[in-house]
Amino acid sequence: MRRACVQSIRRSTRKTVSPSPISRFNHTSAKSSDSALPENDELPRHTHFGFRTVAEGDKEHLVRNVFSSVASKYDLMNDAMSMGVHRLWKDDFVSLLKPGKKGPIKCLDVAGGTGDIALRILDYAREKYADRETAVDVADINPEMLQEGYRRFKKTMYHNTPQVSFTEANAQDMSHIPSNTYDLYTIAFGIRNCTSIPAVLEEAHRVLKPGGTFACLEFSKMTNPVLDTLYDQYSFSVIPMLGTIFAGDRESYQYLVESIRRFPVQPEFAKMISDAGFTTGSMCEGKGGAWTDLWGGIATIHTGVKLE
Amino acid sequence: MAALRNALRSPVIVGPRRGVANKAYPDHIPLNTFEHAFLTVGTGLAALLDPKRGDMVAAFGELTAGPVLPRLRDKMLATGEGRAILKERPRINTKTVDIAALSDLPEGTLGRAYINWLERCGVTPDTRAPVHYVDDPELAYVMQRYRECHDLYHCITSMPVRVEYEIVVKAFEFANLGLPMTGLAAIGAPFRLSAARRDKLKQYIPWALRCGGSARSLMNVYWERRWNQDIEELKRELGIWDPPPAVWGKPLKETTTTTKREGL
Question: Which positions does UniProt annotate for Zn(2+) binding (chain B) (predicted)?
Fold first, then answer.
């Protein structure tokens, strides 16, 4: 009975994006005071920024500021926060996609800032299939993150080759990319920061060729409630502290953990992918399903294919 | 074990722990036992490995201040000047202190000496971070007051801001105020110095401990009311005598760049 209550509370906090969110863990302290309602009748559309509610127009630059401030220590922080496990998740992600198996492909890695996924894709194609033609275009809204990615790629054999490129772009509006361009679209740990997930999914659908694959790696809900509680404790307790110690920035890491809680759960997100026009597996987890849980649901891989 | 149980019990159903309603003051970040311990170790290590991380030194100071802050507050309550400070809660930054007016004071006054010191070191009083981890608002103010007066302690002991002299001032503060962070910094930080610089410390540390220990508690000095006072007279009143002369380097660029020397 109690567990059902807890779960229903948790579900309700996930689904509603009400103006005053029921926050379990407060929260990034509001630097800007709650904006007063405008005098005219039209209310600005609102979205969530962690557990804060902000105007849609603001979210983009707020997110940009978060990532500008974390960019230089991003990789170190990922290692510290996940105790290195994020590398395993990214390895699993790329292994599932098998880039290069059916010949060289063109990939678009969105929100790919520091280049973790792009590098893994290129290395996988090269090592498994002796493929040196597969190319990855890394797109990110944040120039500092792109710079970090560029610097990392300079240490690899792909620097100054047509196999990698870095472009500043907004996942919701990539009009500089013609339709039906890419065989593979990946977005890892980035989509939860976007203002409008449906817009991102639509753009992804547009830029993919027919037969192209959409793949998203993102933090999600743990299926086991006990582990979920422990995970919550860890997220809301330890991660902001690690942010304070390593990066001198508690607020950005508080935002990051809150944004994870705001993200739709696996079935919901799978439905959103399906609604955008992708063909997904059945609405379940695992083989033949629309998503694959990693480590009990801490991270989840969602895939879809553009058929027509 | 109890800490683990408490940690598991606190969130979700029981309600927000770090909610706005739970904050004792706007910058307050309440911590439970585990978080307190974790941050203490983490900030201490970070401060030791990179003493330029002023925010880590500041946080470490707050987290280890624990039992000392109430004693300091009680010492303040015992004197009229201390009580006035606790009542009025003056702050020291460029908005509350009229730098221009102080610059106009004659040489030899406390205010003029302070301005001279700020310029000679190239620092500004605006880089003190707010206190986050002290739960009681009054004790948080005591900690904040200590942080903001730190520069005045530098000034009155004629110490520049180079690392060796920071250690000297920390030793002085430890003898005078008893804050654990100051003592730990005075003990731990010298290991980061080269042997030559550590040798230099030998001239100053005995002075720092003796003078700091015998002087009046500096938390009870209402500096803002004493800008006009002759600094030598003030030093006599407080029981401070001059250390061996220090070697001053080039001024830092705190006033012109955005580098922050938070805390301390």
Answer: 150-151, 154, 166
What's the whole-number mean pLDDT along residues A289-303? 94
Q: What is the pLDDT of residue B137?
A: 94
Closest CA to A74 of A260, A294, A252, A235: A252
Tally A–B CB contacts below 8 A: 60
Q: Looking at this predicted complex, what is its ipTM?
A: 0.79
User: Would you call B16 and A26 a contact, using CB atoms and an 8 Å cutoff?
Assistant: yes
Instruction: Give the per-residue SS3 of chain A.
Output: CHHHHHHHHHHHHHHCCCCCCCCCCCCCCCCCCCCCCCCCCCCCCEEEECCEEEEHHHHHHHHHHHHHHHHHHHHHHHHHHHCCHHHHHHHHHHHHHCCCCCCCCEEEEECCCCCHHHHHHHHHHHHHHCCCCCEEEEEECCHHHHHHHHHHHHCCCCCCCCCEEEEECECCECCCCCCCCEEEEEEECCHHHCCCHHHHHHHHHHHEEEEEEEEEEEECCCCCHHHHHHHHHHHHHHHHHHHHHHHCCHHHHHHHHHHHHHCCCHHHHHHHHHHCCCECCEEEECCCEEEEEEHHHCEEEEEEECCC
Which tens digits make up the pLDDT trace of B86-141?
999 999 888 888 888 888 999 999 999 999 998 888 888 887 889 999 999 999 99
Nearest to B43 among A10, A23, A245 (CB): A245
Pick A2 or A276 by higher pLDDT.
A276
Q: Which domains does chain A have, with CATH numbers?
A: 48-305 (3.40.50.150)
Q: Shortest Cα distance from A3 to chain B (angstroms)?
A: 11
Our measurement of the distance from residue B213's CA atom to the centroid of its chain's CA atoms, rounded to an integer in Å, reads 17
Return the pLDDT at A195. 87
At B144, is the secondary structure helix, strand, or coil?
helix
Residues of chain B in contact with residue A250, where contact means CB-CB under 8 angstroms, are 29
- pTM greater than 0.90: no
